[in-house]
Write a structure and sequence with these properties.
This is Tetratricopeptide repeat protein. The chain is built from 5 helices and no strands. By secondary structure, the chain is mostly helical.
Length: 147
Amino acid sequence: MRARLTYFTLAAVLVVYFVLVGSRGVLLIKQGTAVTVVLGAAVLVLPVIGIWFLWHTTRFARDAGRLARELEAEGGLPVDELRRTPAGRIDRDSADEVFARRRAETERSPEDWRSWFRLAVAYHDARDTPRARKAMQRAIALRRREG
C-alpha cells in the first residue's frame, strides 16, 4: 500500500511539473519570434514524452498487479525460497538456482503466462531488471490473448 501511495504521489508531482513546463512552452511560442517558437516547441516535447512514459509505466504496473492477484487467487504465486545474507539481501547463488528452475518451466510451457510471470519474478530476484520487465510484458501479452 505504501508503494502505491508513493507511486501516485510522485506521478501527481510529475503531472504538475509537465503542466508547468508545457505552459512555459506555450508562452515561448506565443512570443512569436523564430527562436522562441522553436524553443517553445522543443520544450513542449518533454511533457509529451513524460506523459507517454508515465502512462505506459502505470499501465504496466496495473497489468502486472492484476496478473499477480489472479495468480494468487489460483495459488500459483512463486514461493519465496531464496536464501538471504545476514543483511537481508538475496543470495546470488540461490537466485540463480531458482532462476534456472523458472527458465526450464518457461521453456516447457512457452505459451503459459503463469510461467512467464514466475520467470519475471526470478529475473527480478537475480537483479536483471530489463529482462524481468520483458518477461512480465510477455506474461501480460499472453494473458491478454487468453481473453
